[in-house]
Write a structure and sequence with these properties.
This protein has 149 residues and is of the alpha+beta class. 30% of the residues lie in helices and 38% in strands.
Length: 149
């Protein structure tokens, strides 16, 4: 992952994780604990992800989708997951999460080796819209449904 991708992931945190169910159907699950472990790996905490973890035990293929909801830009990160349930790496990742790890019971960590990064950009940019225009429009939209108090 490039430095730009790493910074983006660390800023966004919320990712949507796609795995494959045993019957071949997709499973998509949001994870709010998405972090960059190193330049080749993402990690997330399994707080309440029984379907995701079960799918990964059968098929470690995974895709993570992170998008800035205001600019409509982001990344698809494809890779292979490894479930970490105990041991030195588990302890290292637990320390990495710091105080936030104490808020919820963490069953496992899922360490993802990123094999491919694909940039995402909304078709709105094909119209000549600037990132500032797109962001302004979405901020206005979100304020219309969630007015600032």
């Amino acid at each position: 992952m490039t430095q730009a991708v790493i910074e983006f992931v660390n800023q966004q945190k919320l990712g949507f994780f796609a795995t494959v169910c045993p019957d071949g159907t997709p499973n998509l699950s949001p994870k709010g604990t998405t972090r960059v472990w190193d330049s080749d790996h993402l990690v997330f905490a399994d707080i309440c992800s029984p379907g995701t973890v079960s799918n990964l035990r059968s098929n470690p293929a995974i895709e993570v989708n992170l998008v800035d909801v205001f600019t409509r830009k982001g990344y698809r990160l494809k890779g292979v997951a490894r479930i970490i349930s105990k041991g030195g790496i588990f302890d290292d990742i637990l320390k990495f999460y710091g105080d936030s790890a104490a808020k919820y019971p963490i069953k496992n960590f899922v360490l993802i080796r990123i094999e491919r990064v694909i940039e995402i950009s909304s078709p709105v940019y094909d119209t000549g819209a600037s990132a500032q225009d797109v962001e302004k429009g979405w901020i206005e939209y979100w304020h219309s449904i969630h007015p600032p108090q």
